[in-house]
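Limitations
The structure tokens in this dataset are predictions for the assembled complex, not deposited experimental models. Users should treat interface geometry with appropriate caution, especially where small molecules or nucleic acid strands are included. An illustrative entry is reproduced here so readers can see what is and is not provided.
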Amino acid sequence: MFSFIVRRLVFSVLVLFIASFLIYGSLELAPGDPVTALAAGHPVDAQTRARLTAENHLNDPFLVRYARWTENALHGDFGRSYLEGESVGTLIRARVGTTLLLVSMSSLLIILGGVAIGTVAALRRGWTGTALTAAAGMGLGVPTFVASMLLLTVFAVELGWFPVFGSGSGFIDRIWHLTLPAIALAFASMAYIARVTQASVEGELQREHVMTATARGLPRRQVIRRHVLRNASIPVATASGLIVAYLVVGAAVVEQSFSLNGLGSFLVSSISRDDFPVVQAIALIVIVVFVVVNFIVDLLVSFLDPRVGLE
Amino acid sequence: MTALLDIENLRVELPVEGKLTTVIRNVSISVAEREAVAVVGESGSGKSMTARSALRLLPRDAAVSGDVRFLGESVFEMDSRSLRAYRAECVGMIFQDPRAHINPVRTIGDFLTESLISTRSMKPREARSRVTKLLDDVGVSRAEHRLRQFPYELSGGLLQRVMIASALAMEPKLILADEPTTALDVTTQSDVMSILDEARQERGMGLLFITHDLELAAAVSDRTVVMYAGTIMEDQQSSRLHDTPMHPYSAALIASRPSPHQRQRLTAVAGRPQSASEAPSGCPFGPRCSFRRDECSEAPAAPRVLPGGRTGCIRAEDLGLVAANQLEPIRHG
Amino acid sequence: MNSRPAVLRSPVGVRLHLPSRIGAAQIPTIFCLIVLGAIAFLVVFGPLVAPQDPNAVNLSVSLQGPSGAHPFGTDIAGRDLFSRIIVGARTSVLGPLVIAVTATAVGTLVGVVAAWKRGWIDSILSRTMDVMFAIPGLLLAFMAVAVFGRGITAPVIALAIANIPWVGRVVRSAALRERTLPYIAAYTTQGFSSFRICLRHLLPNIMPTVLAQGTLAFTYGLVDLLALNFLGLGVQPPTADWGVLVSEGQDSILRGAPEETLFASLFIVITVVAATVLSQRIGGDEAPAAPPA
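Predicted assembly:
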């Protein structure tokens, strides 16, 4: 198990390295002149051009610039926004709270709701199971931006129960503002986790070792808890890791729909305005979240499944 | 005297592609206390399903008729609480493939002590020392260490001994063993079988032993029931089955086995095995039997009780199969 | 013994759950196929069957509810929503189709090669796919827009690449399972070339998995691409596209006219659900292999 964790750790670092290289590289090599972008539309004379080039080390070789960028990023310094003139780190720090809260609320909904729905659908036959299976199947077909619009139309505009936009101030108010966005972000993913859970539990119910437990006269609740659900949790953990890791990108859609000032909407607006330092920084954060979440899931799975990493 | 286990006129139908299909028809088997009964048959003969019915471990959508009684009490009529108590206390089941039948993510110790702790309310410590001793009994060395290991760390033979220990742990009156050695290496098969046999005899337990191996059945059981296509072909003392089969099917099976003493051309049983649903009415072996007559298609599904045992063959007498067989009547419940 | 044992024959077609005869069990499959067929019809003939010019602005009929003249009502510029949605099917569905076909072709190739060759080739391919998982499809599409500017071509290529590992991983494990079956060993022993065995026997046998994954890739491509259009980074207004329509309708919702968003959403949901259900039907009801974005 120890060697498995070390292997995963090495792999995580490798993924970070490759992904950061791709992110930085693609935007550096993008067509267009960084000096023009830096000048933000103002006319540039030769002197200003030389100054901007020197200040931003634009003449250094690509690999040197990549190394500098990575090193600075490790210290939380992502350079200066082309457009806002402020440091990217400051701009991100102002927005990270909203996204973090949104993604956390969604993750809770996805995991708790998805596992509950999937488990009940697998264990209850009859119409409850059928209804939940059908609901999960439908939910899977509702993209995040569609869910945002539907929730917005029904609960914010028509019924007026929730605010239409903004992220609120103060903890309770923020939770209230983020409830609809969190549900929208969770919608399809919750359906997905429900399906994975249902399939996993149904598969486990048919396993021979579950029959052994039943044949030994153990109470059904105990068979379900200690043998069915315990074993079925392994694929669910892996799937949840992937889902949660992708939420930061999905947040872009939700933040845009509900006019929330978070990392996702910042990413989208920076892309439209060619503000590359911001795009690079947020893309890197997305990858870091993915790698960290999945490493935690790997730890969890190696704890849940003694056979892991044996092949 | 009531038998330990009494399977009576059992009939099981399972849905296959939406249609109910018969897998067991009119099967009656009884096991007396301390008696070892083997059920022999090819795959698809319904022998495993018979064993499972004894614990009411049939699929939810199976249609079942007949009865299974344990010490006179109907297993099919038990409520869920007494059914659990019956499964926990009265019968220990050993399955074919221990690797599939033991939860792979829990330790051997957990597997062995779980039922002691939960159905006997035993303290975990006490349960551990009890199963440690049992592991010693079934020939598992370094028992303490094994308890902390996971199933994937043990060989198939060791795992099957663990399974045997788990069946013995609750001190049941009856052991149900469903092909306990089929999934094991040939070299460990006889070890595991003799451990099972010894442990059972020491503790005075009954045994219902499901196998496809006639010789193995003869070696460990008092009585052998031969099944084909969900139907009982014959039932008699294991010691006599080899020399004096009471059914053409058994005779054909015996003739198809290679013998180390006589080198001769082996005779295969003609045709291919059939399942209960495909088999014709009357004697299911009819289409493959070289002694078939027209009246065989009207043979009753349940075997006739004769002084030497039971046979499903209506021609047993005129084929001379039962004449030599009437030495010692056996009990039949 | 005049026939070979059944296990040694390649069981082609046996597990492809295509309806041999129409029964109650096939009704969902047929229903999905009809829905997707209708969408495909709109993709091909949309501009011909649209009752009105989808881009004809008429401010005097702005934001009308459904009526005989405008079955889905009109948008803020008075354009006929029914026609816009019908015409929008083409931009909404063609991109995802390209994504699905490309990702499935490459993913299947990668999966089968990895499973067949094993060893270091498998290691390299599998690790590469693992690294690709770390970059969500939508992020890759964002990066494509950042580098190449707004538009549809770059995101389609990005999403096709992003979907390769999802197909590849599932196909690889299906191919791994398949190659352990005795019939493959029988062909190998008889001296057939690997290429021939994979193409003529292994691939047809894992076809249900491949098709199911391809259908799933279509839904992921659709959802991500429409999200991109919704965010204003892909197809640009006034082109009628379902994602653009949902986004354009956003302002109208606040004015009490949610038709544009709702009807466009309805078409998206119907398409995604039909494709998802179809993929489960083909694939034999395994759990979906990849999460939605």
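Some entries come with short summary sentences. For this one: DSSP finds eleven helices and twelve strands in chain B.
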